[in-house]
TrEMBL record:
<dbReference type="InterPro" id="IPR029063">
    <property type="entry name" value="SAM-dependent_MTases_sf"/>
</dbReference>
<keyword id="KW-0489">Methyltransferase</keyword>
<dbReference type="InterPro" id="IPR008715">
    <property type="entry name" value="SAM-MeTfrase_NodS-like"/>
</dbReference>
<dbReference type="GO" id="GO:0008168">
    <property type="term" value="F:methyltransferase activity"/>
</dbReference>
<keyword id="KW-0949">S-adenosyl-L-methionine</keyword>
<dbReference type="Pfam" id="PF05401">
    <property type="entry name" value="NodS"/>
</dbReference>
<dbReference type="GO" id="GO:0032259">
    <property type="term" value="P:methylation"/>
</dbReference>
<keyword id="KW-0808">Transferase</keyword>
<protein>
    <submittedName>
        <fullName>SAM-dependent methyltransferase</fullName>
    </submittedName>
</protein>
Length: 200
């Protein structure tokens, strides 16, 4: 544990099985549905989900990926996510800090959902630079960020979204914005789904 942010996050999992009510809140269910609907490809070879929490999105992503690596800083979250996806082939859940070197490379999908704003601006830039290095040549990124104030967010959601959108070599493919959250889909290849399917 490095600092107060880590202690705060660890305390959330000590105090509740599902600290953000992922399983019961319609807000969370809808956000996950929009995230999955925004994925430009039907399936992915190898996806990475940093900050996976208890695995609510992980288990849905697993349906669309041959292999999926899901990580979280907090051991209790990793344990709960592991139990949730137990028996699913191709899914690995492990402890990892988004401020560290990346656990693997060659991801054709990285899902950064409600995690970037726990990093400060220097850490977030380092994260985006590693993202660019570890993404496959045809890689895509989905970034989702809550736009309202929250503890212990260091960056606000719009700033986190702007920062990840500025990652060199990534093009904006799609975007959702409402008063609560912003979702950006980025890809190395700027072509749309219809362009790739020859519809245009
Ligand atoms: C608000 S939850 C988001 C969960 C999930 N991605 C979603 O959108 O439904 C944020 C998660 O990010 C994790 N997290 C925060 N900072 C992290 C870091 N530096 N490295 C890895 N995980 C981190 C927290 O422990 C927490 O489980």
């Amino acid at each position: 544990m490095r600092d107060d942010r880590d202690r705060w996050l660890t305390a959330q999992y000590a105090g509740a099985e599902d600290p953000w009510s992922y399983d019961s809140r319609w807000y969370e269910q809808r956000k996950r549905a929009l995230t999955l609907a925004a994925l430009p490809r039907r399936t992915y070879r190898y996806a990475f989900e940093p900050g996976c929490s208890i695995g609510a999105l992980t288990e849905l992503l697993a349906e669309r990926c041959d292999r999926l690596l899901a990580c979280d800083l907090v051991p209790a979250a990793v344990e709960r996510a592991r139990q949730r996806v137990a028996g699913r082939p191709g899914v690995t859940v492990r402890e990892w800090d988004a401020r560290d070197v990346w656990p693997d490379s060659g991801f054709d999908l990285v899902v950064v959902s409600e995690v970037l704003y726990y990093l400060d601006v220097v850490e977030a830039y380092a994260f985006c630079s590693r993202l660019a290095h570890h993404l496959a040549p045809d890689g895509q990124v989905v970034a989702v960020h809550w736009r309202r104030p929250a503890d212990p967010h260091v960056l606000d959601g719009d700033r986190a979204d702007r920062l990840i959108r500025a990652t060199p070599g990534l093009h904006l493919l799609a975007r959702w914005e409402d008063p609560d959250f912003v979702l950006s889909v980025l890809g190395r290849d700027p072509r749309s789904v219809a362009e790739l399917e020859g519809l245009t």
